[in-house]
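notes to self, project folder thing:

trying the whole complex as one job this time. last attempt i did each chain seperately and stitching them together was a nightmare. two parts in total, labels are on each line so i dont mix them up again. if this works i'll redo the older ones the same way
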Amino acid sequence: MYYFFTQNQIYIVATIVLICLIGIFLYLFNLDKKISKLEKK
Amino acid sequence: MKHIFLKLVIAIFSLITVSFALLIPIVTSPKTFFEFPIIPTLEEKARNIFFHVPMAWISVIAFFTSVFYSIKYLIKKDEVDDIKSSSAANLGFIFCVLATITGAIWARFNWGEFWNWDPRQTSIFILLLIYGAYFVLRSAIDEDEKRAKISAVYSIISGLTVPFFVFVMPRIMTGLHPGSLGDASGKGPLFEAKAMATNMRIIFYLSVLSFTMIYFWILNLKARVEVLYMKNFENKN
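result (full assembly):
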């Protein structure tokens, strides 16, 4: 696994971009949940 | 739909910047603007600069936004400012975590270990602790006004430590990050150093700009939801 990443470094970049996106999406999911709660009232 | 044009600009601008950051080829001897020079030891990993650094940058901007609204709250005593302040700190924390994780992965492949206790890693860890305590503090106080006042003061004090941890400490100590004391590659962090080509630096600044705009967009959403939330609870009581 480590060797694969050192040979194909663009995958490291891809992982990092994915993590940034996952973080932002998790945040948006949370926000969405809060909005749904508001709508239910 | 207010400011739809602005949001469209943010979206298209970020898409173009991220595409450039990912797609411009890295070659040994660049001839045109659309070719990045190879940086020894970084190679393709150099692209991480366009994503990892903006995360850290946003967290700094977010913590400063939090300080700004805290001061505004203490002057005007408007609950909305308190909400904006805590929302900014919240987002800053999230991006701080993202900067730490992406940095740790990059460190694994450049420095050998996920965590090296490099000055910058240590300082971001302390920042996470400081802002973690901010949320503990907020959740511990039930009374609205008291909570707003105490957390505003806390946010201002912790905001004062941010420049020291992010801009001063990592530069006056020896470490693994570029720009640490005694680093031969240049005077500052990589994006200020000569190691970074002009076109790379332009894309880097565009990337920072687009992520900053995305941050303000999300902050705006978060603050609006929180204000609605507060108003709903007030009506219920």
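what i see at first glance: The mean pLDDT of chain A is 90.
need to look closer tmrw
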